[in-house]
Amino acid sequence: MQQLQFEASWDKALATEDRHSIENIFHETKHLNATVILFSPIREAINHKEELLITVLVHNFSDKNLQFNNTRILYKIEGEVIADHVFTLPAIMVPPNVSMPWTFIFPKDNYLLKRTYQNGRLEIQ
């Protein structure tokens, strides 16, 4: 059975409203189990460094730990690749049958300028 977990720094810093929003997304998506790894969107933003922030709930439906070590991730909107970056994230390890929120940060030169970044999907390549 899928469980929701928060990385330690998220657990401490997460606002109550954001926690409830993530819990709701988890309850709506925890049974999808259509693929081994699934990303459920939470929010998109551009920060003060002009980086694209894509926050998702990472669902690991597999029986193996999920780590991001030289992992190429694409952000697509309606099939168009909007962002492309190789991530090495030692701080995140998603155990089997666990869902965990995370923000993927695409550097300024690794995404296309768009009016909006909503309704996109992350994909592991």
Distance between the termini: 26 Å
Low-pLDDT runs: none
Strand order in space, largest sheet: 1-6-3-2
Question: What is the typical, i.e. mean, pLDDT?
Answer: 93
Measured as a percent range, the helix fraction is: 10-25%
User: Helix segment count?
Assistant: 2
Number of domains: 1
Give a written overview of the molecule.
With 125 residues, this protein is an alpha+beta fold. The protein has one domain (3-124). 16% of the residues lie in helices and 50% in strands. β4 and β5 (80-94) form a beta hairpin. It is globular and about 40 Å long. The model has no long low-confidence stretch (mean pLDDT 93).
List the helices and strands and how they pair.
Elements (H helix, E strand, L loop, with lengths): L2 E2 L3 H6 L2 H14 L7 E10 L5 E9 L5 E12 L2 E15 L3 E9 L13 E5 L1
Parallel strand pairs: 1-6
Antiparallel strand pairs: 2-3, 3-6, 4-5, 4-7
What's a concise summary of this model?
By secondary structure, the protein is α+β, with helices and mostly antiparallel strands. It has helices at 8-13, 16-29; strands spanning 3-4, 37-46, 52-60, 66-77, 80-94, 98-106, 120-124.
Summarize this structure as a short list of keywords or feature phrases.
alpha+beta, 125 residues, four-stranded mixed sheet, 2 helices
